Amino acid sequence: MSSTTYNRILEESQSLSSEEMEQLIQELEDRRRLLDQTPQNRQRAWKDLRGKAPYPLCGEDAQDWVSRTRRESDERRLAG
Q1: Range of the domain at 69
Q2: What is the pLDDT of residue 39?
Q3: Which three-class secondary structure state does DSSP give residue 63?
Q4: Number of domains, the chain
Q5: What is the number of other CB atoms lying within 10 angstroms of the CB of residue 24?
Q6: What's the whole-model pTM score?
């Protein structure tokens, strides 16, 4: 940020009420925390992983896997 922008923001902040200043400080602090987060400290969102795994992941279609494991579970339950 240029010093001109900084000085303009500082000047305009002079007219803020105490509550508005507190709100501005909080918002700036929140933004600073986000910028300071390193990638390894940032919690990943599931959507970040979208498209990363090949299809089919383990060589088997997901629905086929669900059907097979349910069938195997039923067979074990009936046999036991």
Answers
A1: 3-39+54-79
A2: 65
A3: helix
A4: 1
A5: 13
A6: 0.43
